[in-house]
Amino acid sequence: MRQETIENYLKTIYNLSANNTMLVGNQKLSDKLGLRPATVTEGLRKLHDLKHVIYEKSYGTRLTASGAKLALSIVRRHRIWETYLTKELGFGWDEVHEIAEELEHIKNDKLINKLASILGNPIYDPHGDPIPDAKGKILKSNFIKLSETKVKNNYKVMGVTDHSSSFLKYLEKHRLIIGAFINIKTIEDFDNSIILSCQKKELSISAKAAECIIVEAV
Amino acid sequence: MRQETIENYLKTIYNLSANNTMLVGNQKLSDKLGLRPATVTEGLRKLHDLKHVIYEKSYGTRLTASGAKLALSIVRRHRIWETYLTKELGFGWDEVHEIAEELEHIKNDKLINKLASILGNPIYDPHGDPIPDAKGKILKSNFIKLSETKVKNNYKVMGVTDHSSSFLKYLEKHRLIIGAFINIKTIEDFDNSIILSCQKKELSISAKAAECIIVEAV
DNA sequence: AAATTGTTTTAGGTATACCAAAAATAATAA
DNA sequence: TTATTATTTTTGGTATACCTAAAACAATTT
Ligand SMILES: [Mn+2]
Ligand SMILES: [Mn+2]
Ligand SMILES: [Mn+2]
Ligand SMILES: [Mn+2]
Fold it and tell me: Given phi > 0 = left and psi -120 to 50 = alpha, else beta, which region is B8?
């Protein structure tokens, strides 16, 4: 298996497993990796042989200790590069994910640690995701999704779970960026869309978009 | 053909063709690419079909205009990264080639041009190789190899053609670095080794090493 | 419990990147 | 010019990463 393929599998399994608490199914992996389910089945079998995952046939997959370690190191590289690109090289938060998707495979610890140190060893990336440290230690937050909030309460935007340029541009247009304070006005029974106020303006967020915004109660 | 494979072929053909003046043979490509001759034959046929090279069966290969353009852009990325790694990220000139070998495949013009601009659009990389500009224009120098110098003359070290860490460390140990002034004392008839003075010390350079050092008459 | 639906696996197949060994071709020496 | 040597190509083969379609299995509904 090509190293890059291994890394993409492990990173994706990590991202879908909610801190390694859940088994990850093939369908979701197939989606995220852009491969057909049959291909994923083969890939997982190989990763199992490599001892990077425990693959329970027909039920799902979880990372082993070695798999998790590798996954965390890819996640670290990805998020450090995203941060470096925005903070040091003038890229927007909506541009960096794609580039980091390639840069994350460059394997040189000295390089990543140097970038991290120039940035002051940041703990969050431009999308609010926590950055593992050089040892793989990562902050565990108890933030919630905007879709899980309650009417009348106040929240602060802490991150996003969709990194696509279109979604991030949409958020920026409505000033719904990291650090913004919001108040939930209404939640529509009909379609679960949310009406909230943010920077003195009211706006309506679809249930789908609300799934992708991470907030903290204030 | 994988994009990375294409890029490695084209870059290598460029580097072996002395500014596109010479046909490149399969044997040398096989060496540099770490592939067997039979594999190179296949690869070149495919690049020919892609119109990136003119492959004259049994005689050799040259880049087409489109191939040269692509090659120059890889060379630019490689050399800009090497320069950025040394100038901005604190790496030694003996460490950067391997990393650049990976980074050169990250395709994002805005990124490379940003790095170049931070560096002040440099014209030479840490090994003295000229860096093509964003349009592919590259300086053509008429420097010579140390092995082509004449006794008693004075020269300035301008570059190296071997980027291996061991060779560069060896040079550094003897202060034979870019910008150093040297005077040729003797050239041994027997083995073509060169005795020269550099920074007030005398040292003997093997014919093989002298092939890899680029100098300018002063 | 049976039927339906959704997910995963198997079986069989394509395309690509490589290789070793033998054959063909080109370059060089006699 | 012929023989010898070096280089390149052809042939036939392996390994890998992907795919589609069909079969098997698990989860959900009736
Ligand atoms: Mn990736
Ligand atoms: Mn991110
Ligand atoms: Mn290189
Ligand atoms: Mn260089």
Answer: alpha
